[in-house]
């Protein structure tokens, strides 16, 4: 596990040095079994990884920790549109707060990353956890879920982005509001996401492009010019550029600094 809470993982297609991937191994074993059944006339077959390819998701959620106020509106809304109940424990997006940490580490948001190589999908023995054929969104077929919770354990992130619905006894995860029976809006990648719509700080956004990911999260900067007035960095290098600083300073009324200084002296 890395220092940021993500379990060490790699795409299933990538083999260890000098070895084969798990999928290639299983494909080879399957080929050996067929060969044995047919009297050994067939050699072991190594099926191409494209046979097992999972389509990419057509949407992703981005969260800016520095904008989040920790109000938990996203959690309550997520639970409400999916289950008809305002229950934080049934939310598919999680907000964690720490009274001992300083800004912005005092609040953290945990949402499904819609991984390109979804280990939760690979771990499911029944196909309940799958990628939607139309949108690629990783989602759960509740009718097929047997409650083994392998998908929860397989998620490479901590806490797991797959949750256990303790009331209905099945796995659940963010589906980008594709299946929201208690909401009259169309969700999914082509629609509206409840958490995005309800967030008062606009800390959550939707994107159709796969964000660059690292152990520390998405390498996306969602801040704007107003943050430069508060001396917070707004560029991807973590600094307020000189151009941005001058643009923000020019936006202030002329003589504002002088009047402020004279007021202090008086």
Automatic annotation (TrEMBL):
Keyword 4Fe-4S: yes
Database matches in PANTHER family: ANAEROBIC DIMETHYL SULFOXIDE REDUCTASE CHAIN B-RELATED, PROTEIN NRFC
Coiled-coil blocks: none
Keyword line: 4Fe-4S, Electron transport, Iron, Iron-sulfur, Membrane, Metal-binding, Repeat, Transmembrane, Transmembrane helix, Transport
Organism of origin: Gordonibacter massiliensis
Domain 4Fe-4S ferredoxin-type: 102-134, 136-165
UniProt-listed InterPro entries: 4Fe4S_Fe-S-bd (IPR017896), 4Fe4S_Fe_S_CS (IPR017900), ET_IronSulfur_Cluster-Binding (IPR050954), TAT_signal (IPR006311), TAT_signal_bac_arc (IPR019546)
Keyword Lipoprotein: no
Transmembrane segments: 25-47
The protein's name in its UniProt record: 4Fe-4S dicluster domain-containing protein
Pfam family, one: Fer4_11
């Amino acid at each position: 596990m890395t220092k940021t809470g993500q379990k060490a993982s790699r795409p299933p297609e990538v083999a260890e040095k000098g070895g084969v991937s798990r999928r290639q191994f299983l494909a080879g074993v399957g080929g050996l079994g067929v060969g044995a059944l047919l009297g050994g006339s067939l050699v072991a077959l190594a099926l191409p990884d494209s046979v097992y390819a999972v389509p990419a998701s057509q949407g992703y959620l981005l969260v800016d920790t520095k904008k989040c106020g920790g109000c938990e509106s996203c959690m309550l809304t997520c639970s409400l549109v999916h289950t008809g109940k305002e229950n934080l424990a049934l939310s598919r997006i999680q907000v964690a707060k720490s009274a001992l940490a300083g800004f912005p580490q005092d609040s953290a948001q945990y949402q499904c990353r819609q991984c390109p190589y979804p280990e939760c999908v690979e771990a499911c023995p029944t196909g309940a956890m799958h990628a939607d054929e139309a949108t690629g969104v990783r989602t759960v077929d509740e009718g097929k879920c047997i409650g083994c919770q392998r998908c929860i354990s397989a998620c490479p992130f901590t806490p797991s982005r797959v949750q256990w619905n303790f009331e209905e006894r099945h796995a659940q995860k963010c589906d980008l509001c594709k299946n929201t029976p208690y909401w009259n809006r169309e969700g999914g990648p082509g629609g509206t996401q409840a958490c995005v719509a309800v967030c008062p700080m606009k800390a959550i956004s939707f994107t159709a492009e796969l964000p660059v990911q690292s152990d520390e999260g998405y390498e996306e900067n969602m801040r704007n010019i107003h943050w430069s007035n508060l001396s917070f960095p707004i560029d991807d290098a973590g600094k307020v550029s000189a151009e941005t600083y001058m643009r923000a300073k020019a936006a202030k009324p002329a003589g504002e600094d002088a009047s402020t200084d004279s007021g202090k002296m008086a």
